[in-house]
Predict the structure.
Amino acid sequence: MTKSRETFNKKEKEKLRQKKKQEKVDKKEARKSSEKSTDFEDMIAYVDEFGNITSTPPDPTKKKKEIDVDSIEIGVSKAVETEDDGGGRKGKVTFFNDSKGYGFIKDEQTQESIFVHVNGCIDQIQENDKVTFETEKTAKGLSAIEVKLVEK
């Protein structure tokens, strides 16, 4: 007599597989029988005048506001170039490292920090000095050139 090739473990695995298959079929039937409306009108969503999503359509009798299409800006507005008055920009040296030869100047008008290198300086500068300067665009951003001390 030979032993049956089906072991207890194999029988249990087959039962689990059949049970999962039956559960999957039951879930599929439950989804089909659930009374979800697939009507087009139920799928529509409306946006009110404040940008909120609502299920009610807008009132056509309501007076609509006229909007100038040209006044709508998408994205970040472009920076306006400041006109140089011939003397350049003014600022204050917030940091300067003599040993490394670089520092930063805080512009008085825009309050932005601008990089300065010792090669772009006409006069010797130190921290807290008031200076005038020109700017140039570099690969890493704005850089101050022709930096001069302001006489007090």
Summary: Residues 89-149 form a domain with the OB fold (Dihydrolipoamide Acetyltransferase, E2P) fold (CATH 2.40.50.140). The chain has a mean pLDDT of 85. The first helix runs from residue 8 to 33. Helices lie at 8-33, 40-43.
